[in-house]
Amino acid sequence: MLKTLAAQIGEYKKVSIMTPIVMILEVIMEMVIPLLMASIIDEGVEKGNIQHIFLIGILMIIAAAFALLCGILGGAFGAKASTGFAKNLRKAMFEKIQTFSFANIDRFSTGSLVTRMTTDVTNLQNAYQMILRMCFRAPISLICAMFMSFMVNARLASIYLGAVCILGIIIVLIVKNAMKFFTQMFEKYDVLNSKVQENVSSIRVVKAFVREEHEKSLFEKALQAVYDIGIKAERTVALNMPSMMLAVYSCILLISWMGAKMIVQNELTTGELMMLLAYCMNILMNLLMLSMIFVMMTMSQASAKRIYEVLTEEPDIKNPENPVYHVKDGSIVFDHVTFRYYKDSEKPVLNDVSLSIKAGETIGILGGTGSAKSTLANLISRLYDVDEGSIKVGGRDVREYDLETIRNEVSVVLQKNVLFSGSILDNLRWGKEDATEEECIRACKLACADEFIEKMPEAYETYIEQGGTNVSGGQRQRLCIARALLKNPKILILDDSTSAVDTATDAKIRKAFREEIPDVTKLIIAQRISSIQDADRILVLDNGEINGFGSHEELLAGNEIYMDVYKAQTQGKESEEGGEING
Fold first, then answer.
1. What value does the CA radius of gyration of the chain take, rounded to a whole number of Å?
2. 104-108, 110-114, 148-152, 323-327: which has the highest mean pLDDT?
3. Residues in Cβ contact with 31 at an 8 Å cutoff, skipping those fewer than 6 apart
4. Measured between alpha carbons, how far is 559 from 545 in angstroms, rounded to an integer?
5. What secondary structure letter does DSSP report for 448?
6. 363 conformational bin, left if phi > 0, alpha if psi -120 to 50, beta if neither
């Protein structure tokens, strides 16, 4: 794990090395200052030597100034190194997520990934800065101060040693108990962030059903869970400071009491006592810093594991060793395909599906909710891999193709129409980055999107809000279809992507497809029979299995599911028309 995370230091290795170096120089200066102070008292103040006081005072000022400079440089270098480390971590995680298949993403919730890229990386950033600045400085300073104390007076210095041993045991116990709470706390953060993400993305539904109070209560429960576990963690960590303060003041009292007696007995000078007290504070403050480092590392250890999980997650779908970069045509063959979203599921989502589609055919796909229509479409563009059997596009197994190649040649308009913040042209060019305005306009005409775009004040430069909130559902669908057409694919899959479009516009889009892109294989998933009845063939799915496959007339003559849907839709339409006439 450490090796994987350390690899993200990257170009910040130099400042990462410089930070502990300047911090060690600061420690050296801090060790010199008490020696100089003792010299001023013993050789200057007590002997009345003003010249000595003046000379050593100048040296103390120089040492203090140099220590200050080193401290400032250490802070600057440490901040640059830790911030750069965090930047590289977020970049590496984001790039890794881009390689994930849908199955990989399903293993991490959106809220969890957000927490890992924000809170967890921030924890690691703070810990890294603490390690660079204090993890080197504190132990070296503590050891040097302890050594200098023993050089002055071993009997008094043994008090420090005893305090250090006792506090070390206390710190270990605190860290051990706090670790489990911090691990649980980050899991609660995942739930909290997921709740926020779900609420914000579905705010229109929440308001439409007046469920604000319900959502508030759910959020408060998630918030309370974070609070409760956070309190437990902080209570454990809070024992750290009182333990340290007790040790500090106990040591000062003991050394002052014993040192005063030794001065009276001429076993110790006043300067040496002052030097020991200075080293006492140095030792115990550095021990306090070490305890803070342990606490920070305890928190960051849980975060590090969660970041490591993302960085080392192996994508389920990878490029083959020698990928194929050319798709011959848009023919599709399903050969005894079985698929499960979860490998341990007893019942497959698609079960032993076999079918053959010629290049340029228009295939309608019909089925009830949960019949695996969308799953079938996702397998063609290799968003998931089959468990059994194979899918061939252009005569080759989709697993033989370069991922970018197959996904460019199989253009999918998903059920959820997603637009990004930017102009209409910016959104369209997701389909083809270098598309000219003329190409964009042609794609919009095919998708019947030009009708509403040209009525907008800024036409194709109109700004689209994040998620496409400033256009209607039908307009979003048509823009997404136009974006998919710009890819000039060999296969076009419309996954219920004209559901928000009126029947007249739907008919125009289908007519444009027939006339303008006859060589493109078109798979149209729809709930309305009117959207697919003029397709070359229609596939009827039922519980992940093929129930029927044929033309509109063939299915009407012999497929019960298709006949039931057709009757329900046409009778409903006739009754509506009759009602309008009678009215």
1. 36
2. 323-327
3. 141, 144, 145, 148
4. 14
5. T
6. beta
pLDDT surpassing 80 at residue 547: yes
| Mean pLDDT within 227-251 | 74
Percent of the chain scoring above 90 in pLDDT: 0
Asked if pLDDT for residue 516 goes beyond 80, the answer is no
Do the Cβ atoms of 250 and 163 come closer than 8 Å?
yes
* Residue the block writes with tokens 């209570």: 235
Q: What is the pLDDT of residue 123?
A: 83
Helix, strand, or coil (residue 264): helix
Q: Is the dihedral of CA 325, 328, 331, 334 positive or negative?
A: negative
d(CA 485, CA 519): 13
- Which residue in the block uniquely carries the two structure tokens 């516009």? 505
Summarize pLDDT for 419-434 with one digit per residue, the tens.
777 887 888 888 777 7
Average pLDDT over every residue of 106-111: 70
Distance CA 294, CA 135 (A): 10
Q: In this predicted model, what pLDDT tens digit does every residue of 252-284 receive, in sequence order?
A: 787 778 777 777 777 777 777 777 777 777 776
| Cβ pair 19, 71 in contact under 8 A | no
Cα 509 from Cα 389, distance rounded (Å): 34
Sequence-distant (6+) residues with CB within 8 A of 201 are 467
Is the Cβ–Cβ distance between 444 and 453 less than 8 Å?
yes
Residue 301 CA from chain centroid, whole number = 17
pLDDT of amino acid 317 = 78
Question: Closest by alpha carbon to 444, among 408, 411, 475, 409?
Answer: 475
Sheet strands (E) in 299-425: 332-339, 350-357, 362-367, 388-393, 396-397, 410-413, 422-423
Burial of 54 (0-12, 13-18, 19+ CB in 10 A): exposed
Distance (Å) of CA 69 to CA 20, 22, 131, 290, 436: 14, 9, 20, 23, 57
